[in-house]
Each structure stands twice: as C-alpha cells, then as structure tokens.
# Entry
Amino acid sequence: MQPTLLSMQPQSPPADSTPTDSSPLGLVAGWGRFPIELAEHARARGRQLVVAAIKSHADEALIPLSSAHRTFGVAKLGAQMRFFQQHGVREVLLAGKLFKDRILFHGWGWMGHLPDAICLAALWDSFVSGRADQRDDTLLGSVVRAFAARGMTVIPSSAIAPELMAEEGVLTQRQPSRRERRDMDFGWDIARQMGQLDIGQSVTIRDRTVLGVEAIEGTDALIARMTAVCPRGGFTLVKVAKPHQDMRFDVPTIGLRTIEQMHRAGGSAIAIEAGKTIFVDREATLRRANQLGIALVSLKDAQAVASQADDLLAHQRSAFSLKLHRA
# Structure
C-alpha cells in the first residue's frame, strides 16, 4: 500500500496532548536540537521557560530562550525540582537525549554522578535494591512520579509543539523503491517488537535481512556500524515508537543529523512512524535528504500492516498463476 503525499502544514495536537496553563514552563534539557526547537515553540506560545540544562548535554543556545537557566548534573534531580519550584513551575517537559551508556557504564557509573537524596530515592529500586530494572521506561517513569509527588506534572511535547510531530506521507521528493518498501514493511514489526521490550527504537534492513538493532548506544551509533556491516550500502532505517509509547519521554526523534549519518554509512531510505516521531530541523532535513536522494516515509502502523498484506497477496497470486501455467 503506497502512502499518499500529504500536506506538510502543521497537524492538530495528538489526542494525548495535555491542557497547559500560563505559568512558567519547566524544561529539563538534554542533548540535541529538540530542546531548542521545543523552547522556541514554547516562547512563541507566550510561555516563560525555566531551563534545567543537563551538564555536558544541553546546548547553550537555550540560554537566550529562557527566563531562568541553570546547569545541573544529570543525577541532581532534587536540585532541578527546587529550581523549578522557586520559579513557580507547575508543568515540566523532558526533552533531548541523555547518553545513557556514558552515564551508567563509564567511569564510576551512576554513583559517580553523585545523585542527590531525591534522585537516590526515586531510582532506589533500579540502582540500589535491584527490585526494578534499568530500562528507559522504568527509569523515566520513576522520574515522572517524583515530579508529580512535588506538585509538578510532566507533559508531552505535543502539548506545546504539535508541529514537531511527523505527518503521514512520503516526505521527500524521491519515493522509496519496491525493495526499500519491502524492507520497511519487514523491519516495521521487528522494530515494534524491540520497542515492546524497551530495548531500542530502530533497526536497519537490507533485502529483508536485519543488519543491526539499536540498543543503549542509540540510533547514530547503529547507523555508523553499517559501514562495516553493509559496505554495499542501500540499507533502510526503520524507526518506530513503542506499542504503548508514553509521549512524555523517550519519543523517537529524527533530523538533519540522521540524514547525514545515513549518507555517510550508505543508507538509502528511512521509515518513521507518523504522529509519534519528533521531526527537528524539518526544512533543512528534507532539503538535505532530497539533495542526497534519501527517501523518507512517515507511516501509520496500519499502513505497514496493509502493505505487508498487499505483498503477501501478490505473492499468492504469482504462485497461483505459475501453477496454472504448469498445468
């Protein structure tokens, strides 16, 4: 099933958008362009922004966009909360990547970041008692509950910037080839199952063979590995949300960096999930993808399933025709 070209005008807020108020908005900012674009949209909507910038992650470009800005260690959760409370924050956004592998498995690990008392209490079961695991949903869910216990609600980015969510359709000038579409369909369910297990969001596929699976290292590192795994190039990246994605955190994100990484590694096509993927640097990303001939398709889950069914029906028809010919 071929996805149709759709308008690239801003879409309506997703159903899970949370009503917002006019109080200062808290932003816990990690790495990447996403926190910056989110801050720009918040400012455009008249919200004052209080930024808790994660040390060695957040971009200094956030400083002029904020009414209050302070840098914190990644494990200083209590200090971040007190900073927000001092500025009257009732709603909080979590945006940007945290380099989990470096935080947990480099140097002294998590304890090397000297977690404060509130952070220690929030993540005790994952890091101390062992009663809980250290998957993203587990850790970030604990952080969300810790904010709620102190009167602050973590809201989805779609409540502030629905325009950042990828719309449905073929977003580039080049349509994916038949082989690329088959690889997208093949990889879709695999990526979905990986998300169900909270392992990663992305897989790379060539000729309906799984080349790589994203884990703690992230999508960029997955793509970079393909130069050795698939030197022929022509692979497809499939990046989807978890089946029950909590839109307040760990939402799939793509942008200009994704396109550049794919080009360097020899990738030729990308499939993302419409309405559940954050699309940063949209204009620059699409312009660069068009220059490089990389196809970018944004699909609803039902489209991928329908496309698989179409392929199966075509295969059955071909087999039936061959039997008739032999008869």
User: Anything to note?
Assistant: The domain at 25-159 is CATH 3.40.50.20 (Rossmann fold). Residues 301-326 form the longest helix (26 residues).
